[in-house]
Amino acid sequence: MNACARGIAPGLWVIILLTLVAPGAHASGPTDGWASFARTPSRVSVIEGCLPDLSLHAWTRATDASGLAITFHGQSGVVLSKDSVFAIGRVTPPGQGAQWRLFCFSRDSGTPGWAAPIPAPVLESWSSPCYDVRTASVYVASGSFVTCINAQTGQQRWQTPLGASVVNASPLVTDDLGHSNRLFITDFSTGGDGRLLCLNVDAFHAAQNPYQPGAIVWSAMIGSTSGNTPAYLSKREGGLGLVYVATSGDFFFGPGELLAFPADAGVTPAPAFVAPNPEGHGYYGGVCVTSPASVGQDPALYAASYHFWGGLFSSSLVRLNARTGELAWSIASNRTSTTPVPISGGYVLVSGGVSGFGSVPSITLYKDNADHAQRVWDSALDSWIDENSNGVIDPGEYLRVGGWTIQPACVIDQARRRVFVGVAPSGASAYTPCAELVAFDYTRSPSMPGFLVESVEGVGASPAIDDGTLFSIGAQGLRGMGYPATRYDVNTDGRISIDDLYAWEQGLGARDVNADGDINETDRVLLLSRLRAGEWAIGAYDG
């Protein structure tokens, strides 16, 4: 047993098994979808619903509607509407240079739809798009612009010049501000003049919203910025009307800061709070905010830093009170530009690490005790076998998963827990597409049997998951895995309900749910699992 495993307090594994099955404030509903980076504006990349099965290859797409080869953009994530998948990439028509596009594909079949021109990303930026069902639009932050695209037709609705480039940050769109919903994005700066920009997305109204769609309502100077995706918790989820953002501080030296601003401000507001990183590190990724754990409590804000020197745990993961900015705790973590993943039961996952410079790619699980935290396991340290006895975690001696650019996604399916995450590219560049995606059971230690559940080659970028299907891009293109939602619609009435089970039992409709050519109990079990995906079950774990 290695040092990390020895450091776990006696009985902690029992506590994990007991608390992880309890309902928590971080779980989502079964139909919330995955419309933006890290799922929703709160940036908590956890969804409740059917587990996607990576062995079920629905489709892979690597060409556009004209047959041109698509080079999807490295570490950029995909997002979903009810019917479509949206992803960023480029094509090179004969005799022309590379042309950047936002591509639209059918969720069920991968059939290419429209391809909308967008400005080229700067500095290999891996920003993800954002879909908004209210405006039926997809928003892309690339180059020095925010582009709004009609989600149905692919036509550009508007494009706003920002005056500075966006690098690795993804847009946020609110949906609870009445007639005055806003888009928030950070630009890129190494000189201390980075900004959080607020753009209008709703229709002009002389009294209630005196801005045209795409107009910049305000911008706030926040310091140096890179990859600082903002977060927002809606009021219906217990949010406080604040948009949260991190900064990188002075490049290489820090400290970065966590800031909060009123989202509904009509002019540039003063921050509600400014909280420097207690360890003096800079933040090069996004933040996430969780709903209050109970009535009378405040939301919690999480962020993880990137320190350029030191070993496997040279950086920090922090939790703050999202109302006051007061520090709840800070704990050592792997360096990262990803967003932490808080999970029901009081746990937080961080994907981080680089190949070299004292670090390796890994996923770390922490126990969040509200006023302090402890490390439960680290995938590299807990799987490490020092084969050459040199005291260094060398390639091939540990389980390689995650990394500083790779955002995990968690699925809660009744009593089953899965994390889906890419494997960091092994080449010299961290920006190249992932070649593998893995699923693991985070209720087990990496040294335990059954930790690594499944893997698939050819994909791995920040996945989008909904209705038992997973979508990700990688070295082989854009792929859909699992069962498309339409396969559960046995009676073909356009919705998934108990009526589909009645039809199945009566021998009616499209009963071959898993499309394997046989109609049997496996199809019935799959249908039941989909219909009961919103329930919580306390019992033994699978595997």
Short description:
The protein is mainly beta and 543 residues long. It is built from 5 helices and 34 strands.
Written description of the protein model:
The protein is mainly beta. It folds into two domains: 3-7 and 38-45 and 67-482, Methylamine Dehydrogenase, Chain H (7 Propeller); 483-543, Dockerin domain (Type 1 dockerin domain, Orthogonal Bundle), CATH 1.10.1330. Helices cover 7% and strands 34% of the residues. The chain contains five helices and 34 strands. The strands form eight sheets. A five-stranded mixed beta sheet has the order 1-28-29-30-31, with no helix packed on it. Strands 3, 4, 5, 6 and 7 form a five-stranded antiparallel beta sheet that branches. Strands 2-34-33-32 form a four-stranded antiparallel beta sheet, with no helix packed on it. A hairpin with an 8-residue loop joins strand 12 and strand 13 (182-186). Helix 4 packs antiparallel against helix 5 (521-531). The chain is globular and about 65 Å long. Mean pLDDT is 89; it is low at 1-31 and 534-543.
In helices, the fraction of residues equals under 10%
Overall mean confidence score, pLDDT: 89
Q: Might you state the CATH topology name of the largest domain? A: Methylamine Dehydrogenase, Chain H
Q: Please list the strands of the largest sheet in the order they lie side by side.
A: 1-28-29-30-31
Number of helices: 5
Q: Provide the gyration radius in Å.
A: 22 Å
Structural classification: mainly beta
How far the N terminus sits from the C terminus, by CA atoms, comes to 22 Å
Principal-axis shape: globular
Task: Note the main sheet.
Answer: 5 strands, mixed
Give the second-level CATH assignment, the architecture of the largest domain: 7 Propeller
Query: Under the CATH scheme, which class of the largest domain?
Result: Mainly Beta
How would you name the CATH homologous superfamily of the largest domain?
YVTN repeat-like/Quinoprotein amine dehydrogenase
Strand content: 25-35%
Number of domains: 2
Unreliable stretches (pLDDT < 50, length at least 5) are 1-31, 534-543
Number of DSSP strand runs: 34
